[in-house]
């Protein structure tokens, strides 16, 4: 893995205007879906982006795809600012950054054959040579585990299993030879037995095709072996980021500790004490003062209501934002 910073997010924010709370209110309110995210993805690196429902994971992915415009902040790709692109530039970028969505049933057009589905991105991007197209489609399908491709080409999505459909989605993403895949909960709709297969496939692709992956999940347990780094997101912010080992073995943020404590472990003797967070996830329209995690933090101090903790550097690769870490 080279260390160049080929995708960089700096202070990225996305606020949605969600209107006035009532007819009598003068001011419209903002929902802070993404609230100042900074990190760097390296070439062929896998980052797992973890956090509970509503913390802003998908919005962040949509910002990276240019499907939402950021309220603030920048994204650079290979040194080029890609924060605000026109349609044509955005289309060109789509060849390099592809997204794999959660639901393989919804992402596939039921009236198209697998061949048509996987060929479509090539047609959209102006690949006119049919022999070249066929070759790329076959390779993308076989690299996605649909081998031999001929067996699947003329089938329809409903004739395939859930795992095979997600492989078709991945093949349609691969056919343009992207450098980054944003995988938004790619296994959460699949049977537990086939989740590992799809994760293994993504792990293979980063090696065989040098693809970087942002693997979005609400389940830290599903990240397993394959991520290089883990970024833990809470209410629109990254509260901890580090290598897989740093985050799983030496978590520093109380929220990360709580997420880790509920990961099932096969050996009952190694069972950890579960940390059950009190209260609901706060509403991103009404972000708590000070440390945004304080209403649910099991170790909160009185000062946590007033001070917003910065990200503290714990090692070259490990950062976390908690006042307990501030010297
Ligand atoms: N277009 C929109 N308009 C208004 N609010 C939005 C919009 N899109 C997302 N949100 C809100 O932004 C917040 C973050 O949503 P997002 O879908 O990014 O979360 P998530 O972490 O992907 O959640 P999940 O794990 O459930 O997929 C949520 O409160 C959501 O309701
Ligand atoms: S700053 Fe305070 S409330 Fe926030 S995580 Fe640390 S201890 Fe908990
Ligand atoms: Mg989501």
Main β-sheet description: 8 strands, mixed
Into which percentage range does the β-strand content fall? 15-25%
How many alpha or pi helices? 9
Query: How much helix, percentage-wise, in residues?
Result: 25-40%
Shape: globular
Order the strands across the largest sheet as they lie in space: 6-7-8-3-9-10-12-11
Helical/strand content category:
alpha/beta
Question: What is the radius of gyration computed over CA atoms, rounded to a whole number of angstroms?
Answer: 21 Å
Indicate how many domains the architecture comprises: 1
Quantity of strands, as a count: 12
Bound small molecules, deduplicated: adenosine-5'-triphosphate, iron/sulfur cluster, magnesium ion
Amino- and carboxy-terminal Cα gap: 34 Å
* Average pLDDT score: 91
- In CATH terms, the superfamily is P-loop containing nucleotide triphosphate hydrolases
Question: What features would you describe in this structure?
Answer:
Helix 3 packs parallel to helix 6. The protein has a single domain, classed as P-loop containing nucleotide triphosphate hydrolases (Rossmann fold). The chain is of the alpha/beta class and 327 residues long. The model has no long low-confidence stretch (mean pLDDT 91). The strands form 2 sheets. It has an 8-stranded mixed β-sheet with strand order 6-7-8-3-9-10-12-11, with helices on both faces. Strands 2-1-4-5 form a 4-stranded antiparallel β-sheet, covered by helices on one side. The protein is 27% helix and 22% strand. It binds adenosine-5'-triphosphate (ATP), iron/sulfur cluster (SF4) and magnesium ion. Adenosine-5'-triphosphate binds next to strand 2 and helix 1. The site of adenosine-5'-triphosphate has 14 residues, from strand 2 and helix 1.
